[in-house]
Structures are given as structure tokens and as C-alpha cells.
Amino acid sequence: MSSPKSQAVERRPRASLTREAIVVAAAEILDEGGVDGLTMRSVAHRLDAGTMSLYRHVDGREELLDLVVARLAADIPERTPTGDWRSDLATFARDVRTVLLRRPNLTVLMTSRAAPGSGSLGALELVLGLLRDAGFSPEDAVYANHALGNYVAGAALWEAVGLDGTTGEERARRARAAAEAVAHVPADRFPNVAWAAGSLFAGTADDRFEAGLAALLDGFAAIRSQRAGSKMLTKRASDQGLTTSRRR
């Protein structure tokens, strides 16, 4: 038999529970305990509502996860393109990383689950637009978008859960211990590790992110230049062929 309290919760007016409130509560739970802690029951408890009442607003846990990802994707700042595709892509990458690292427990969810909502489509529209305006072909733009997304997600994921998910002084202590261990590897067995030992843990997470981002953008620029050169050669050959034909 239900207790008076549970009956009161189940009888809560439907208008007091909204889809937005459910998504906010789910994000809070994920923030605090990660994906494993999110259940329809835990969300209902957070909202002091009956579990079944949630199903009037969302289909279930899977849809709720998608809604949380879409909500967080919408946190990426909307910026007006400057006309410098490389600078704009770098700014976008930094913005996404910031959003991911702002809520470390959600990074795994956000980097492993594609949200079908307008938040993720807006980000995709932005990146493809920057690449299109820069002269990339549709195929090259899609590949570049995948590469950039994978890099940012992987970097953020490493920062969020690397070193067993520790933060602050504990993470610094473990990093120092790892650097000390690498510094004493036998050079005869691991000559390359020994050669790079002094640099393996050098710099900050920001330094490493920026170095990788620059290398990635350099690659995009090289592809763009190569494609432009190929098109120019093709056009020249076509023009020469047309001129020869006219002379005949």
C-alpha cells in the first residue's frame, strides 16, 4: 500500500513537472555521479515526483540522455565568423573543449553519444559552413569535421578521465610519479622513450591541446592547397586542349 507521502507525490499536478525540469535534473545527476547514476527513478526522486509521471514528458532513459547531450551542445557559444576559416575553426574547437571540461562527469556522455537535436546540428552547420566558404569540397569538409571532432573529444576525454579521473593536487602528484618512473626506464630496452622522457610530461594540458590543434589545422590547410593546385592544373590542361582544338 502506498504511503500518504507517495500518494501526494503521485497526485502532484501535471503542470508542475516539465520536460525542461526533467532535463535539468538529469544533467545535475550526471554531473554528480556520471552516467551510471542516471535512472528514471533517480530523476523522479530529484524532482520529488512519481517515476511514471516522467513518461508523460520523455519516452525513457535513452531519450533523456539524448536531451541532456543536446542541451549541453547548445551551450557552445554562437560566434560570427571572421572570414579566417583557420582562426574560426580553432575558436570553435576551444569553445567545445571548454564546454566539455566544464562538466567532467558529462564528458564521456557528450563524446560518445551523438545528439539528434538542433544543438548538435547547429555545431555541424557552423563547421561545414566555415570549410565550405574556405573552398573545401563536401567530402574533404566532412572528413575535416570528423577529424576535428574526434581530436577535441579525445583531448577532453583524456583530461576528464585520465589518471583515473583525479583532479587538483592528486592528479599533479600522480603525474609527477609517472614522470619520475619514465625518467628511469632502461634506455637499452626503450631507447625512444628514454630519448623523449624529459618532454613526455612537459607543458600544460592547454599547451598540448594547442599543439595538436595547430598540427591538425596545418593538415587541413595542406589538403586545401593541394586540391586547389590540382584544380588549377586540370583547368590549364582543359584550356590548352580547347585552344589546340580551335587552332585545328
Please characterize this protein's 3D structure.
This protein has 248 residues and is an all-alpha fold. It folds into three domains: 4-58, Homeodomain-like (Arc Repressor Mutant, subunit A), CATH 1.10.10.60; 83-156 and 207-248, Tetracycline Repressor, domain 2 (Orthogonal Bundle), CATH 1.10.357.10; 162-202, no CATH class. It contains twelve helices and no strands. Helix 2 crosses helix 5.
Q: Outline of this structure?
A:
The chain is mainly alpha-helical. Helices cover 74% and strands 0% of the residues. Helix 6 (85-102) packs antiparallel against helix 8 and helix 7 packs antiparallel against helix 9 (138-161).
**How many domain units?**
3
Biggest beta sheet attributes: none
Q: How many individual β-strands?
A: 0
Shape: flat
Comma- or semicolon-separated keywords:
248 residues; mainly alpha; Arc Repressor Mutant, subunit A; Tetracycline Repressor, domain 2; 3 domains; 12 helices; 74% helix; 0% strand; flat; disordered N terminus
